[in-house]
Amino acid sequence: MISNDIQGIGMTSQRTRDRLVDRLREKGIKNERVLEVIRTTPRHIFVDEAMAHRAYEDTALPIGHGQTISQPYIVARMTEILLENGIPDVVLEVGTGSGYQSAILSRLVPKVYTVERISALLQKAREAHRKLGLMNVFSKHSDGSWGWAPNAPYPAIMVTAAPKTVPPGLLEQLAVGGRMVIPVGYTGGVQELKLYTRTAEGIEEETLELVSFVPLLDGAIR
Ligand code: SAH
Question: Distance (Å, rounded) from C-alpha 99 to C-alpha 83?
């Protein structure tokens, strides 16, 4: 299957990917390591074949089950924010979805834990990770609002679905000095991207920009 081929041709070729990175740079992404990983990670592997020709547009795309693969700009931005103070040993991602964000993270940090509530999506994401030979992504089928306790605390947490308010369980799993980036508040499909930092004294909160994510929902389903 040509469109699923890792190398890609035409609308999935390296030239098309290079253009996406040019666009991300124009939009203000500065971390060259993040840009290089986006340039060299095939996004079309993470969408259905019928969507592959749009994989290098800077836009969110449907992945089934009413969910989306995040817009590349947002993937780059959230990754850049998480890595701003250096490379964490491990990242917890909540909302695996297509597995694209975790693939990007896995090439920048030693270990990625990711949690997804829809089993069918998680199976596909695992398949894509296998195809790319990514060995440092560990995933779980579960409601990620509660994090992933046995491996906590985390120096970095990225939430890629939007809760109304920040799940306290996730803040609890943030290590001292750790950073969590999360879209919060889902009225009208628009949220504020927040950065929470745990210091020795407590939690600091910063609002970064407006974003649009699917909602963080309760419970795990097939
Ligand atoms: N990071 C993903 C974005 C997927 S969209 C990517 O790169 O493609 C958000 C995902 O979060 C969806 O797949 C949705 O099913 C999942 N999700 C929503 N609520 C969740 C929860 N409580 N726990 C785990 N995953 C959740």
Answer: 19
- Fill in the amino acid letter for 165: T
In whole angstroms, what is the distance from residue 141 CA to residue 147 CA?
A: 11
How far is residue 87's CA from residue 80's CA, in Å, rounded to a whole number?
10
Cα 75 versus chain centre, distance? 6
Q: What is the Å distance from ligand 1's center to 117 Cα?
A: 7
Average pLDDT (131-156) is 97
Q: Which atom of ligand 1 is nearest to the CA of 63?
A: 8
Mutational test site, ligand 1, from 69, 124, 214, 218, max ligand atoms within 8 Å of CB: 214
Statement: residue 200 has pLDDT above 90: yes
User: pTM to 2 decimals?
Assistant: 0.96
- Domains of the chain, start order: 59-211 (3.40.50.150)
**For ligand 1, atom 19: residue with the closest CA:** 216
Catalytic-residue membership of 106: no
